[in-house]
Amino acid sequence: MSTAFQVNGRAVRAEAEPDTPLLWVIRDELGMTGTKFGCGAALCGACTVHIDGKPARSCQTLLSSVDGAKVSTIEGLSKDNSHPLQVAWIKHDVPQCGYCQSGQLMSAAALLSNNKNPSDADIDTAMSGNICRCGTYPRIKAAIKDAASMMRNA
Amino acid sequence: MTTSRRSFLKNSAALASSGLLMGIAIPTALQAAGTVHTPNAWVHIADDNTITLISARSEMGQGVYTSMPMLIAEELHVDLRKIKVRIAPSNGKLYGNKLLGGAQLTGGSTSVRDGWEKLRIGGAQVREMLISAAANQWGVDRAGLTAVDGHVLGANGKKASYGSLAAAAAKLPVPENVAIKDPKDFTIVGKRTKRLDTPDKINGQAEFGIDVKLPGMVYAALEQCPVIGGTVKSYDATKAKAMPGVLAVVQIPDGVAVVANSWWRANMARQELSIVWDEGAGAALNDKAMLDSLRAAAKTGTVIPLKAVGDPEAVIAASDKVLRAEYASQLLSHSPLEPMNFTAHYTNGKMRLIGSTQWQDAAQSQIAKAVGLAVDDVSVETTFLGGGFGRRIDIDFIIQAAQIAKQLDKPVKLVWSREDDMTHDFYRPQAIHTLAASLGADGKPTAMTFRLTSQSVTGRVFGLPAPVQDPLMTEAAVAGYNIPASRHDVVKHDAGLRVGYWRSVSHALNAFANEGFIDELAHMAGQDPYAYRLSLLEGKPRFANVLKLAAEKAGWGTPLPAGHSRGIALMEGYDTYMAQVAEISLERGAIKVHKVTVAADLGHMVNPDTVEAQIQSSVVFGLGAATLQEITLKDGRVQQSNFDKFPIVRMSQAPVIDIVLVESSEKPGGIGEPATALVAPALANALAVLTGKRMRKLPMTAAAIQAA
């Protein structure tokens, strides 16, 4: 059996077993490797995607549960690095190794879709599930605030 | 400034006599029209003027993808925005690291220090070859020509792009002597520069090892013995082979691999393997007994002298103001966020390897040996690394991928789970420091003895003989303070677990002990820890300067909110002088770090923004090691297997980090690591002020603080 859903606005059908984590369907079957594997246990946030607009850890999301859903990945954030978060990420040169940044950006995008003026505490809460082993946190926080400001003034 | 070509060649070696480099594998996917020309190892120029600069070092977050090209571009006279960057293929002769014995290895905070002159000379050579090619083409004296922004310019508006000159330039001899700029004339190096890898790292396009795709590729998951070093006695793969998508089950020396048409299927089927292990000697290990074995070795092991001045034992024996202390450091895993993985393809007698590694030429030569091929029949291509921190200096997982691929007729990507990664690391070794000092009437130390007892990583990795001093155990062992009599020595002791180089290596061990102990001496003398340190730094201007700068910036001595305290620490490491001041409080018994102020003098900097980023990174990395993380063993099994039991610092725990960089014309120092080492002592020193408790053992968790 196959599972039908949307990824970044495109209709897809996946043939993997229904109990396969969405992460591995996206990476190995659909070939979109921007979404990362970090822990396999929803402890690090590297695999964060949006499902029907809400952030989710794709390593703990079964394929069967996204039947008919709209999934967004890092590849869908913008076509040309023009999302305010991407603009801010460049301005602050946030990434180091870069491995966690897809998940960081997807968590931050979910935050800003609900809150255009997040406080430090709001940011800490929204981003607490995303580990950055390189410790880019000070720049992530500064970039989120910058992006929020851009979005308020847009 | 002129450096002879000969001395340059001696370091980078093996240029063909024609000046055209032979045998360089041109990195794939160079999107350039026409032939690509390679005047030397660092610069590839295509006919269409696509210029590709080579980084011989792996990009693992530290910024070499930008800083290495900056050094080349400074002399090549090209706009950094208009060039492409490629990580060098495996070729130790061309791309060896002089500071690491010629290995093509990224580590030891050496990239800028090794490349500082070499890469500028490399850029200048190609610039001069392009100018000569233009002079020949135009029939003019080369003296009147200049190179500007990717073009050679002559009189009367003559102009030729580097691309149009590259074919001719590559045929010219590489110039013997080239002039390189005085640093005061730099236009690229030393300027804050946007990282060239950021755009691809914010949209999912950057390729890490785990993202490699080859046509027909299959996936492998490997079951290894739960006790590191254990081997397979027998196994039954009947159930695993019946699982969906499984293509093969293959045994290799480290375990049994399931190969399937997706990684998830391979990993599910792997759990159906039934394996009988010979667990080996490691099955008896537990971390507490290991630490006790170090304590015993400190008393009875072979002592390797490091430095001796006067007769400190006699001075201490005669003193009535003596402090003796033991410091202890824990086992740690590296846990980069990208788990170990590599892609291997064995075809037509050649092994192609692609992935995240810090040590290309070791991977090439050791895999050749492991799978019975000539070195030249093994190639290593390096992707972006999802973190390294020293873990990817080891190549165990690359050997495994190659051994699996040797048994298949398809490319295969081996991916470890997080659990595999955390339980099969090469861990930061435990350490015991045995320290003693005596104080004079003025409170200053009159004598000090220092003994480190720990396990040698260099013995394992490079085969350093046991009686020989391991320079990667003695980093920052001798602190900068003036003490009239002192003895520093080392006891190497193999506690039984495999150990690896971990960000800042022995600096972290030695600085924790030295900087905690000097703080204890200050308190014993009834003196301010900052003023006490400063009083011992006469004639050590770079030490004294960063100490003063950090203290001033942090407002040392000024009032703090109730329940807050400050601690200070100082070190030289990787030719970088650094001081840190940490401001902390206690939150539910745990250390809460509010601010870390860092002053650093690392001589010339290539990209100051990256310098700041590396300091921020290192502080956060060091904070986790100081307060949260410990690997423990029971019956030889690592007890932590994911981030629930081995916590990584999260955003809410990250302090404000305030950085002061010293403008300096000293030779460059390394910056990828040193700030990691100073966090633990700065926190311990602040905690002693706050609670009166002196923490001499890591990690300083809430439970450990309560128990102290």
Quick overview of this protein structure:
Helix content of chain A is 36%, strand content 14%.
Q: What does this 3D model show about the protein?
A:
The complex is a heterodimer of chains A (154) and B (708). Chain A is an alpha+beta fold and 154 residues long. Chain A has helices at residues 22-29, 84-91, 101-114, 120-127, 137-153, and strands at residues 3-7, 10-14, 48-51, 54-57, 70-72. Chain A folds into 2 domains: 3-76, Beta-grasp domain (Ubiquitin-like (UB roll)), CATH 3.10.20.30; 84-153, Orthogonal Bundle (DNA polymerase, domain 1). Helix content of chain A is 36%, strand content 14%. In chain A, a hairpin with a 2-residue loop joins strand 1 and strand 2 (10-14). The radius of gyration of chain A is 15 Å and the shape is globular. The mean pLDDT of chain A is 97. Chain B is of the alpha+beta class and 708 residues long. Chain B folds into 3 domains: 2-201, Aldehyde Oxidoreductase, domain 4, CATH 3.30.365; 209-280 and 340-415, Aldehyde oxidase/xanthine dehydrogenase, molybdopterin binding domain (Aldehyde Oxidoreductase, domain 4, 2-Layer Sandwich); 287-332 and 427-707, Aldehyde Oxidoreductase, domain 4 (2-Layer Sandwich), CATH 3.30.365.10. Helix content of chain B is 30%, strand content 24%. The N and C termini of chain B lie far apart (57 Å). Chains A and B meet through helix 1, helix 2, helix 3, helix 4 and helix 5 of A and helix 7 and helix 17 of B.
Tags for this model:
heterodimer, A: 154 residues, alpha+beta, Ubiquitin-like (UB roll), DNA polymerase, domain 1, 2 domains, 5-stranded mixed β-sheet, 5 helices, 36% helix, B: 708 residues, Aldehyde Oxidoreductase, domain 4, 24% strand, globular, disordered N terminus
SSE map:
The complex is a heterodimer of chains A (154) and B (708).
Chain A: E1 3-7, E2 10-14, H1 22-29, E3 48-51, E4 54-57, E5 70-72, H2 84-91, H3 101-114, H4 120-127, H5 137-153
Chain B: E1 2-4, H1 5-12, E2 36-40, E3 43-46, E4 51-55, H2 64-76, E5 83-87, H3 92-95, H4 111-138, E6 146-148, E7 151-153, E8 159-161, H5 162-169, E9 177-179, E10 218-224, E11 231-236, H6 238-241, E12 246-252, E13 255-260, H7 263-270, E14 274-278, H8 287-300, E15 303-309, H9 312-318, E16 322-329, E17 341-347, E18 350-355, H10 360-371, E19 378-382, H11 396-405, E20 412-415, H12 418-423, E21 431-439, E22 445-454, H13 457-462, E23 485-492, H14 505-524, H15 529-535, H16 541-554, E24 565-573, E25 576-587, E26 590-601, H17 608-627, E27 633-634, E28 637-638, E29 656-661, H18 674-691, H19 702-707
Parallel strand pairs in B: 4-5, 10-20, 18-19, 22-23, 26-29
Antiparallel strand pairs in B: 1-9, 2-3, 3-4, 6-7, 7-8, 10-13, 11-14, 12-13, 15-23, 16-21, 17-18, 17-20, 21-22, 24-25, 25-26, 27-28
Helix pairs in contact in B: 2-4, 4-5, 10-11, 14-18, 17-18
